[in-house]
């Protein structure tokens, strides 16, 4: 059975409770945060040094002008060097597909 989007988005949807006329609409990030707090899902944060190196690496990769295939080779090299097993990689991919942002997935 397929659920239609208009059935999901109504005034009783999460984030709309207690909303008064003129209040701003709830944002997806706010609803996600409330859901994670309600269900005890903790956000994993990276150490600042790792985050800084990751940002440098991704910006260098974007500025290198590599085509999609070469970018995938770089990604495959990173996954291989980290020793991620194929089943672990597939689990991470599923988490990303389910809506986790990149900060939470790593």
Descriptive account of the structure:
This protein is mostly helical and 106 residues long. It has two domains: 5-38, no CATH class; 48-105, no CATH class. The chain is 58% helix and 0% strand. It contains six helices and no strands. It has helices spanning 5-8, 28-38, 48-63, 68-82, 86-97, 102-105. The longest helix is centred in the middle third of the chain and has 16 residues, at 48-63. The model has no long low-confidence stretch (mean pLDDT 77).
> Terminal Cα separation, in Å?
33 Å
Helix content: 55-70%
- Could you give the order of the helices and strands? HHHHHH
**Unreliable residue stretches:** none
User: Strand share of the residues?
Assistant: under 5%
Radius of gyration from the alpha-carbon trace, in angstroms? 19 Å
Shape verdict: elongated
Instruction: Summarize the main sheet.
Output: none
What is the residue-mean pLDDT, rounded to a whole number?
77
Keywords:
single chain; 106 residues; mainly alpha; 6 helices; elongated
Brief sketch in words of this structure:
By secondary structure, the chain is an all-alpha fold. The protein is 58% helix and 0% strand. It has 6 helices and no strands.
